[in-house]
Design goal:
The protein has 105 residues and is α+β, with helices and mostly antiparallel strands. The longest helix is centred in the middle third of the chain and has 13 residues, at 41-53. It has helices at residues 2-10, 14-23, 30-34, 41-53, 76-83, 88-100, and strands spanning 28-29, 57-62, 65-70. The protein has one domain (2-100): Orthogonal Bundle (Arc Repressor Mutant, subunit A), CATH 1.10.10.10.
Length: 105
């Protein structure tokens, strides 16, 4: 469960979610990841390091550049946990619809 806590804590930051989202499209150089943000490349590097330390992405140094790619396996626990709750909301909406239509009384 601690891995799950770390995953959600690390993805709670909007910048890290944006980086993660960009990497869903494929591998990217660190400099390319930093481009859309109004912050230094050093600041983006810190966010990347947090994601890397959590195992959510992998860093590889090639010459003078660092390349990042997702580690999809690390998201499996989070995905499994969320999947357990997929049936909750449809049932809640069905109950609400029955109540609103007067069938729930």
């Amino acid at each position: 469960m601690s891995n799950l806590d770390t995953t959600f804590a690390d993805l709670s930051d909007v910048t890290r979610r944006a980086i993660f989202g960009r990497l869903m499209q494929g591998e990217a150089r660190l400099s390319d990841l930093a481009a859309p943000f109004d912050m230094s490349q050093t600041a983006v590097s810190k966010h990347v390091r947090v994601l890397s330390d959590a195992g959510l992405l992998e860093l590889e140094k090639r010459g003078r550049t660092r390349h990042c790619r997702l580690n999809a396996h690390a998201m499996k626990d989070a995905s499994d946990w969320l999947t357990d709750y997929q049936g909750f909301w449809p049932q809640q909406f069905n109950n609400l619809a029955r109540h609103v239509s007067g069938q729930g009384e």
